[in-house]
Amino acid sequence: MATTRKKAKRNAGYALHVFTASGAVFGMLALQAIIDGRVRDSLIWLIVCQILDGIDGPIARKLDVVIHAPWLSGVVLDEIVDYFTYVIIPVMFLLNMNMLPAQYETFVAGAILLTCAIWWARTDHKTDDSWFVGFPCMWNLVVISFLLLKTPPTWVVIISLILCALQLTNIKFPHPVRVTVLRPFSITISIVYLLAITVMSINYTEPLQEPSLLTKGLLLSLPAYATVLAIWKTWFVVEKAPRTKKKVKSRK
Q: Domains in the chain, ordered, with CATH?
C-alpha cells in the first residue's frame, strides 16, 4: 500500500514536470503566431503560458515534487521555460509588431534580454518571504499592456529601459500570490487584471480602438498596486536579521 502510494506520488510529480515543460510548446505557438502576424492568437497563447506558470508552482509544493520526483529540477525547468515565455517571446512581440522606433529596436531588445539574463542569475533575486529583488521579468504582461493601451513607441522605449534598470536594483517587488502582506487583496487584483487582459485579448480586433478609461484603469491597476507595495517594502519596512537555516529552493 505504501509502495503504491509512493509510486503514485512519483508519477504525479513527473507528470507535473511535463506540464511545466509544456509551457515551452505553448510559447512556440505564441512565437509562430507573432511571426505570422496573428496578434490575437499570440496574445492568447501568452496568457495561456502565464496561467500555466501561475498554477504549476502551488501544485508542485502540494505534491512535494522535490521529494517524490527529484530526478528533474522543477526550479531549473520552470526558469528555462519562463525565460522563453516571459522574455524572448515578448521581445519578439515588440520587434514584430513595430512597437518600438526603428532606431531603438536593437538597443531596447538587447537591453531586455541582457538584464533579464542577469536578473535570473542573481542569487538574491527572491527573498525568504517571497518578494522579488529587482523588477521580475514579466515582460509578457508588460508588452500585452503596451499593446492594449496603445502606448506610443517613445513611451515604450522609456518605460522598457526604466524596467531594465529596475531589474538590477535591490527594490523589492511583491509576488502576486505568495507574499503574505495583503495577500487576499493581491490575489484578487491579480485575478481581475488577468481576466481583463484575457477578455481584451480574446476580443482583440484591428484596428485597435482607443482604450476607454475603464480599460486603462484595469490594465494599470496591478502595476500601480505593485509599485505602492514595492515602495513600502523597500523603504518603510525594517527587515529582520536573515535566518541561517538552510532551505530547499521552491518554484515561483
A: 2-235 (1.20.120)
